[in-house]
Design goal:
single chain, 202 residues, alpha+beta
């Protein structure tokens, strides 16, 4: 699926995870029930824990055996970034995989390789080998949360409908509730386990 995509020319053009955190702006996202985006991001990052020791052992044993690299396409104004990127950072740390953040607006041509249902949903984590060949990707949401948006779009195909904005606002609120009230991190870890397992078999 990704054999024709090579992104080695992007190595070194991003920023470090710490630079991304340092440069984040404080935003209020009422629909997504985030009162302060930077505070929420830091809380998710600093309070991440390996509740399932099997997960930690899996990623710890992976320890970058194939000289892998990770590029994360995202911005700091997307609620899915606030929830998911802290977990992505922690997993890449555990695997000792060098990671760069490519700010989406500055790398749209790269983002367009990894569209979700034809649109630029973020974050997208791209796993590459040391030569820049894309081995796999994750994003932009855990599948059960993405399913909420997929159902909405299939039922509301007309973006010009007079009540479209109101309806999608409610969907963003529903997705925000899922991040707050469900164990999305463990689901994300399971999806990343499946991704890394498939890469390891290659």
């Amino acid at each position: 699926m990704y054999e024709t995509i090579n992104l080695k020319h992007k190595f070194g053009l991003g920023i470090t995870p710490q630079q991304f955190i340092d440069n984040m702006e404080n935003r209020i996202m009422q629909q997504s029930k985030i009162l302060n985006t930077k505070d929420q991001f830091l809380y998710n990052y600093e309070n991440f824990s390996w509740e399932n020791k099997t997960d930690k052992l899996f990623f710890n044993s992976f320890r970058n055996p194939q000289d892998l690299y990770c590029l994360i396409l995202c911005t700091d104004w997307c609620p899915d970034v606030i929830w998911n990127v802290p977990v992505l950072f922690r997993v890449m740390e555990q695997c000792n995989i060098p990671t760069e953040v490519l700010l989406m607006e500055e790398h749209l041509e790269t983002m367009d390789h990894f569209l979700t249902d034809g649109v630029r949903n973020q974050p997208i984590a791209v796993i590459l080998d040391k030569n820049g060949n894309v081995l796999g990707r994750w994003g932009a949401r855990p599948a059960y949360i993405q399913a909420v948006m997929d159902r909405f779009k299939s039922s509301n195909p007309d973006k010009e409908a007079p009540d479209y904005k109101e309806k999608i606002g409610k969907v963003y609120g529903e997705i925000g509730e899922l991040y707050h009230s469900t164990d999305y991190q463990n689901v994300l870890l399971q999806e990343l386990t499946e991704l890394f397992s498939s890469i390891h078999k290659c």
